[in-house]
Amino acid sequence: MAVDAARSEEGFTSAGATRVMVAACRAAGIDDRGAELIRLGENALFRLASGPVIVRVARGEEWLSKSRNEVAVSRWLTGEGFPAARVVEDLEQPLVIGGHPVTFWHLIEEGGRKATYGELGAILRELHSLTLPAGLELPPFDPFDKQELRLDRAAIPEDDRVFLRQRWRALRDKFEELRFETPRGPVHGDAHVQNLMVDKQGRVILIDFEAFCFDHPEWDLMVTAVEHHSLGWQTDEQYADFVRAYGRDLYDWYGYETLRGLQEFGMTTWLMQNVKEDEQTAAEYRRRIAGLRNADGSRDWRPW
């Protein structure tokens, strides 16, 4: 089966990712019939109809090391008894199909409610208290990881590309000036409330370990702080619950504005990868790039 369409000149598409998923399931001896695409973002996520499994298709071979880290982190956290997404145990993972790393995960049956910001603060506090085991080597956090690939490949106007490259260079300079006083430890790397799920037993479970790393905890506080202080995506009460549960408000730190710039840049370039998927995505990208061009203006960005 040809699977190269996922990396065609039109980019990483839902149709191409579906072909990769089908080929990966057949290679693993898993029934792919009736599989449903549930999300297209940095990866494509499919829910199988044949069993309680999620198939995760990465954009390209450049993501192979991340996929390997995801599997290793899941196995470590599971062994620690930490509430985390679990890979399917009896498969060698990741598979590489047509240049795409593919991993298989146990489906988390949701219990009918969303996780709260207080629960996010609490689970991050617990995560940051863990000690990495010997043999689990994780990279430092890299806010610029894959940004150049995104800028090269995205189907965006050339003046946007020029602007984003200029912003990228300016942010790199600011990043080099950051000085942290906290110790390094396990960091999720994309710690927003949508990366928590609540199962039918009421357990809050951490998911999505693609950006998991060994670095300073500020990177995990950055997302929610920016979503509240810059984007207004939480009420004051929700953000206060997060701060109380974790024990710190990143907004008070001198480096917040630099982290805000990095987070908003990453949110925009993440979304721009899929501007050809549908008009809703393209419209949200236009809102975000307009916001970056007007640094002091209000943000009417929508959660995605």
Structure explained in plain terms:
This protein is of the alpha+beta class and 304 residues long. Helix content is 41%, strand content 12%. It has 9 helices and 9 strands. The strands form 3 sheets. A 5-stranded antiparallel beta sheet has the order 1-2-3-5-4, sandwiched between helices. A two-stranded antiparallel sheet has the order 6-9. Helix 3 (117-128) runs parallel beside helix 7, helix 4 (147-153) runs antiparallel to helix 5 (158-177) and helix 8 (256-272) runs antiparallel to helix 9 (279-293). The chain is globular, with a radius of gyration of 19 Å. The mean pLDDT is 92.
Which descriptors would you attach to this protein?
alpha+beta; single chain; 304 residues; 5-stranded antiparallel sheet; 41% helix; 12% strand; two-stranded antiparallel sheet
Provide a concise account of the structure shown.
This protein is of the alpha+beta class. Helix content is 41%, strand content 12%.
In whole angstroms, the N-to-C terminal distance is 32 Å
Mean pLDDT: 92
Helix content: 40-55%
In spatial order, strands of the major sheet run 1-2-3-5-4
Number of helices: 9
Look at the helices and sheets and give the structural class.
alpha+beta
Low-confidence stretches: none
- Beta fraction: 5-15%
Shape: globular
Rg, Cα atoms, Å = 19 Å
Largest sheet report? 5 strands, antiparallel
Helix and strand element order: HEEEHEEHHHEEEEHHHH
Number of E strands: 9
What layout of secondary structure does this protein have?
Elements (H helix, E strand, L loop, with lengths): L13 H15 L7 E5 L2 E5 L5 E6 L5 H17 L14 E3 L2 E7 L10 H12 L18 H7 L4 H20 L7 E3 L8 E3 L5 E3 L6 E3 L2 H12 L6 H11 L9 H17 L6 H15 L11
Antiparallel strand pairs: 1-2, 2-3, 3-5, 4-5, 6-9, 7-8
Helix pairs in contact: 3-7, 4-5, 5-8, 6-8, 8-9
